[in-house]
Design a protein that fits this description.
Layout: H1 4-36, E1 49-54, E2 57-62, E3 71-72, E4 93-101, E5 106-107, E6 117-124, H2 132-142, E7 153-154, E8 159-165, E9 176-180, E10 189-194, E11 203-210, E12 215-218
């Protein structure tokens, strides 16, 4: 028993790993086939417009900027029947994401992280009880930044910071660095950089509440 069980566990892990890798290959191949099936490069195609409402504001954007589909109210993309959700400019969006390249602001056509790549996500705006200051405070506390660590201030950036925060919601995550504005600032923003290695960040995410469009913005 002491010999067979570990051996069976190893076989299980090997088979599971092979199945996962095979699935990833099929998915990747499907995306690749989707891009080349008509013999055209992404920038040569004609794209439809995606449309929907966020906090009462209507958004219309070319699908050239969108690697994934917009999320409308109703069933999530992980649930059966989500394709039957109401769509169009009169339908409420749960989220709207698009990808572009900086500084040209042209479509990225993929999720490949490379120099100049920017991924933007829009979400419905917060309620009256949840403003920018409380959102930032929640993120800071979630990243286990103590009250004593909140006094670090970078004069050049004009931002408070903590370089060695942690992500309590993700096991195995490297260190997290946070930068945020003063609670009394007219425009409040928080920037979160995740490190898989110590020398450079893997990704940086900037969040703020845009009152003009009534949405939370994440870049």
């Amino acid at each position: 028993m002491f010999i067979v069980m570990p051996f069976l566990a190893l076989i299980y892990l090997y088979v599971w790993s092979a199945l996962v890798k095979s699935s990833l290959v099929v998915i990747a191949s499907s995306f690749h086939w989707f891009w080349i099936i008509d013999g055209k490069q992404p920038h040569e195609r004609t794209y439809a417009l995606a449309c929907g409402k966020l906090s009462g504001t209507v958004f219309e954007i070319s699908r050239a900027y969108m690697f994934f589909w917009p999320e409308y109210e109703g069933k999530s993309s992980w649930e059966k029947g989500f394709i039957n959700n109401k769509k169009g400019c009169d339908a409420n969006l749960v989220s709207l994401g698009f990808e572009l390249l900086w500084p040209s602001m042209e479509p990225a056509y993929s999720m490949e992280i490379r120099p100049g790549f920017i991924s933007v996500s829009l979400y419905p705006g917060p309620t009256r009880e949840v403003n920018a200051a409380s959102m930032i405070d929640f993120i800071i506390r979630q990243r286990k930044v103590s009250d004593d660590q909140r006094d670090n201030f970078d004069e050049a950036l004009g931002l408070f910071y903590e370089l060695n925060a942690t992500d309590s919601g993700y096991i195995g995550q490297g260190r997290v660095s946070l930068y945020w504005t003063d609670a009394k600032a007219a425009e409040q923003v928080i920037i979160e950089c995740n490190f898989m290695r110590e020398d450079e960040p893997c990704t940086c995410d900037q969040k703020w509440i845009n009152d003009g469009i009534g949405s939370t913005v994440s870049i």
